[in-house]
Fold this sequence. Notes:
Layout: H1 3-15, E1 23-25, H2 31-39, E2 45-46, H3 49-55, H4 66-79, E3 84-87, H5 96-108, E4 113-116, H6 130-147, E5 152-156, H7 170-184, E6 188-190, H8 197-207, E7 211-214, H9 222-228, E8 232-234, H10 238-256, H11 261-264, H12 270-278
Parallel strand pairs: 1-8, 2-3, 3-4, 4-5, 5-6, 6-7, 7-8
Helix pairs in contact: 2-4, 4-5, 5-6, 6-7, 7-8
Amino acid sequence: xxxxxxxxxxxxxxxxxxxxxxxxxxxxxxxxxxxxxxxxxxxxxxxxxxxxxxxxxxxxxxxxxxxxxxxxxxxxxxxxxxxxxxxxxxxxxxxxxxxxxxxxxxxxxxxxxxxxxxxxxxxxxxxxxxxxxxxxxxxxxxxxxxxxxxxxxxxxxxxxxxxxxxxxxxxxxxxxxxxxxxxxxxxxxxxxxxxxxxxxxxxxxxxxxxxxxxxxxxxxxxxxxxxxxxxxxxxxxxxxxxxxxxxxxxxxxxxxxxxxxxxxxxxxxxxxxxxxxxxxxx
Length: 282
C-alpha cells in the first residue's frame, strides 16, 4: 500500500468514529478471522494483541515482540480492503524513541490506526505516569504527521480493567486521563473493564470525545450502547477466546462421549475457508 492510499484509509477510519452509527469491532487475530469479519460487511478490522500473542504461545502483556506482533498485522492489512487498526499494547518500549519506532513499524505494516495502553504489565504498579503517557501520545501524533499517515490513535486507560487505585476515585481518574489523552492528540478514548450502565453514560458525557467500550459479559446490547453515545465497541480477545472455548468443548465431547456433534454445528465449510484465503486482493 502506498502512503497516499494509506492516509485515505486513515481518514476513512477516523470518520467511522463520528457516527452516525457506532463502530463495532469483533477483533481479528489472523488472516482468516479478518477475512471472515470483512466478508460480513464490517467497515474496519481491529486486531487483538492477546489473540495474536496466544497464537505464538505468549501470554498477554507485551511478552510478544513488536516484530512478531506487527508481522501478523501486516499479513492482515495486506489481505483485506478495509482499514486495519493495530493493538500495539503499550507501544513495546518505555521511551519516546520507542513510541516513534513503533509508529513507523505500524505504518510499514499497512495499518492506519493503533491502540495504546497506559500500563506496561498486569498490575497497577505498571501504570505509566500521566505526564509521560501524554508525552508519548504527543510523540506518536508528531511521528504520524511526519510520515504522512495520520494514524487513528485509540488511547486506553486500564484503571477499571486491572483495576487501579481506590474504587471511589476511579471515575475521576479515568476522566482525567482520557481528557489528557484527547488533548494530547488521541482520536478515540478507551476505558476497558467498565460495565456499569450509569457510569458508562456519565463517561460518555465527561470525556467529550469518541469513547470506546470493551464488550464484556453482563453489559448492555450494542444498540443500547450506541443509543447512549458510545462511539466504538470492541471485543478485544473475546472472539478468539470463544473460539478456544469451542475447541475445548469439541475435544471434551470426543474424549468423554466418543462423539463430535459440536464440531459440526455452525462449521465454516472447508471449501469456503479455501475460497476466502485464495481470493486475491484487488
